[in-house]
Amino acid sequence: MAYFETVTVKTDLLIVGGGMAATGAGVEAAYWAKKNGLSVTLVDKAALDRSGGAAMGLSAINQYVGLRDGENTLADYVQYVRNDLMGITREDLVANIARHVDSSVHLFEKWGLPIWKDENGKYVHEGRWQLMINGESYKVVLAEACKNALGIDNIYERIFIVGPLMNGDRCVGAVGFSVREEKFYVFLAKAVLVAMGGAVHVFKPRSAGEGLGRAWYPPWNSGSSAYFTMKAGAEMTCQEVRFIPVRFKDAYGPVGAWFLLFKSRATNALGENYMQTNAAELEKWVPYGKVKPVPANLRNWLMLLDVMDGKGPIYMRTEEAIANIANEYKDDPKAYKKKMKELESEAWEDFLDMTISQAILWAATNVAPEERSSEIAAAEPYFIGSHSGASGAWVSGPADIQTDETRGEYFWGYPCLSTVKGIFCAGDASGASSHKFTSGSHAEGRIAAKGAISYIVDNNEEPTIDNAVVEKMKSEILKPLEIFEQHKGETTDPDINPNYIRPKMFMFRLQKMMDEYAGGVSSQFTTSKSLLVKGLELMEFLKEDSEKLAAEDLHELMRCWENIHRMWQAEAHIRTIMFREETRWPGYYFRADLPSIKEEWKVFANCRWDPATGEWEMMKRPIYQIYD
Ligand SMILES: Cc1cc2nc3c(=O)[nH]c(=O)nc-3n(C[C@H](O)[C@H](O)[C@H](O)COP(=O)(O)OP(=O)(O)OC[C@H]3O[C@@H](n4cnc5c(N)ncnc54)[C@H](O)[C@@H]3O)c2cc1C
After folding, report:
1. How many CB atoms lie within 10 A of CB 579?
2. Which residue of 121, 235, 269, 447 sits 20 to 30 Å from the alpha carbon of 227, by its own alpha carbon?
3. Mean pLDDT of the chain
4. Is the pTM of this model over 0.85?
């Protein structure tokens, strides 16, 4: 593509991604870089103000430990995460984030984020770990702080990062392209901090036809973190741990405020509370079936049992929850009316704060939450290691939390360093440290940035790359544009052409495969070895066809690469579900051929794609309990 200008940017630390982890990293890196005379550059495929999981705004900060006021201890948080992930968690990573997260929240407040306070000036909690916020502009507030710290000239927006730039076993930067101008970007760096979120649209979504594209998870996170680290040869962890949120059906509105703040029940169509009627099932999943709160996947599972028994739809009993709260005022008609009004507006605001489409759907279907229930359902699977999933790169923990047992396994020099020289990961990009959410991802971004700067200080080598390598990557990355140009005139319908496949059709094929063979919505999240083997076989054909992806313009070029990233995420997922010979997370996925939890599988299931051979290696890593 002769007309594509190549722009080369040289920096010391490169941050790829612009979400929660990246904005935290930006602020911290700016501070330490200035002290050490280093430069920092941040690149986002979108606009920093409104990108990533928190783009639309949120109504709660989901991780606040409250160490300052002695509300909880680090051990409390670690125990909560360990139980919710059915025992599979890196306690050193979880504790490291938990001990830093409150300071990120205090910074948010200082930067102007309104956090709800009670009459005594204390934060209002939604649940034990969650704080209520007026969060419509949550992301804008954090982006502003990051821009102020880094300087606007060091931030590149609307550049899609395709993959790592490797010089032998060392990462020396990243390559990508502008989604607005015909420019190919080469970022040369001494270390790269990966924070490009998780992945959506790997599985067929529930939304089809006029609803296509609607998902719980934001559409722009398409597996770029996973692709970047895998392509560099990094060891990955928890690739089997997907997240399936139960949300208001069809517009994916949040349920947290209903369950935690309004104390609502969810019931089947017969009015039965499946958490009670199916409670005996929890015995099968002990010890985790017996912990409080019941792990998220098991809550899903009890619901799914009713769905599979034909007892759906499942309803959030909004009218009952609102009535229960307002009933406290039943003897005072004026106060009752006022409370009802207040609850009604909180119910709508909860959606308007973060999932506007759910409010639109309520309006479109004449729902008054104080009058009737709304349907809830399990969404399609997502990869979001910072939420209740855990997928991501296998990274080093902090030095001071290690024990004699863990030191060799969990620590190799710098916090958040992956197994590849020069690649640090945070947020959804780093694995086995679930439940960090917005605040914890921000805190982990700060931890990773500080680690990356000390790595650069200790390994201050100039990044170099052979020009021929760059030229080869450029032509590979831009190839879909050429394919389209060359063959577009050969058929009357540009969507149907024997010489190429457009990214949308490619995505449909990937999603159908994952849905049917890897346990998606249509298969009630159930799979087996035979299905997975067949899925992998079909994946090989998809990989072959990825060479024939065609792009009409820059936007479609981005779509092509997003789908290649998704395909890699999908393959790692299938391989790891197959490797783990048990069902550990019913409600997220169920292995019909191995339908129970097994003590010998209380290990991490890790994988690595070898750039030298192109082969996948699967391995187990031990789990150590550090906290009581
Ligand atoms: C619907 C939803 C509701 C949530 N609700 C809450 C809540 O109420 N409270 C809470 O605390 N947490 C909540 N979370 C979790 C929270 O949003 C995530 O934990 C957090 O955003 C993860 O941070 P991150 O930096 O890893 O990813 P993100 O914040 O998602 O950022 C990813 C960034 O990478 C960029 N990017 C992606 N691909 C590329 C590429 N190829 N090149 C360049 N840039 C790229 C994106 O543009 C984006 O800037 C919610 C998440 C979702 C999806």
Report:
1. 18
2. 447
3. 96
4. yes
